[in-house]
Write a structure and sequence with these properties.
The chain has 4 helices and 6 strands. 40% of the residues lie in helices and 21% in strands.
């Protein structure tokens, strides 16, 4: 789904045009609110690491999922502090992590959050447009709550899928929005 797709879907609801600049702001705000719950994975390889030296991780890293040595074996003797990591042994390490979605900047940019969140993004843009027009809009406040409910539903579905893929027994967990 692109920013333009979001504009088209939200504009039809509010019966008004949404400016591209506003749509970009709203989309980035919504993606930031979803954040780590989007389960977006990435990785970085750190070559020639020295013992007890801090190395910078990308700014969008939220959670380290796994660290592996260059022989592919899992490595756990590391520390993470903020956006930095240090290792207790020299070597090359692959760091797998979850991260924040990348911000959009033009109409043709695709949102990075998974498809289960797309309806929540549309709802957030509708809310944003209503709130911009009238910050006390009852419809706007209802749409904001609907965004959080849709986000929670998508998060729970993805969490269940994540745990199933990892062979983890699912237990009831409160989402950050509950």
């Amino acid at each position: 789904m692109t920013v333009q797709d979001l504009i088209d879907a939200a504009s039809a609801y509010i019966d008004d045009d949404i400016e591209l600049a506003d749509a970009i702001i709203a989309t980035n705000e919504a993606q930031a609110r979803i954040g780590d719950m989007a389960f977006i994975y990435d990785g970085v390889t750190l070559n020639g690491c020295i013992v007890n030296t801090w190395y910078d991780l990308p700014a969008e890293v939220t959670t380290i999922v796994a660290v592996k040595r260059d022989d592919g074996k899992r490595y756990t003797n590391y520390r993470k502090l903020g956006q930095r990591i240090e290792f207790a042994h020299p070597g090359t390490y692959s760091v797998e992590y979850r991260r924040m979605p990348v911000a959009v900047s033009k109409a043709t940019d695709a949102v990075e959050v998974p498809a289960p969140y797309h309806s929540a993004l549309v709802t957030y843009m509708r809310y944003w447009a209503k709130a911009k027009e009238d910050e006390d809009s009852e419809d706007g406040m209802r749409l904001k709550q609907e965004f959080y409910l849709e986000t929670d539903r998508a998060y729970r579905a993805l969490l269940k899928s994540e745990r199933k893929g990892l062979g983890i027994q699912l237990r009831v967990e409160r989402s950050p929005f509950a």
